[in-house]
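Internal tracking record. Fields below are filled automatically when a chain is submitted to the structure queue. Please do not edit lines marked as system-generated. If the sequence contains nonstandard residues, flag them in the REMARKS field before resubmitting.
Queue: standard
Priority: normal
Entity type: single polypeptide chain
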Amino acid sequence: MATYILLSTLTDEGAKTIKKKPGRIKEVNEELDKLGVKVTAQYAVLGPYDFVNVVEAPDNETIARVSAELASRGSIKITTLPAIDIDTFIASFR
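SYSTEM-GENERATED OUTPUT FOLLOWS
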């Protein structure tokens, strides 16, 4: 499984949803699992993004599909970044 970082920002609609039903965040994690993406870490953050999620997916196509699915709901905007394990990255220089 490949690792990806999802940086997300709530839209006005998403902020209203979270305020009314904060447990929705965990419900979305369960939906991701059913779509083949496992959330391995999740943080609410301050700054230009509202959440940082570390996820695992089998390939770029899966994470692209899931990112598009989430964004199409209108509650968040997502930046998706592929992540390389630091040991793997260092080994690539050998």
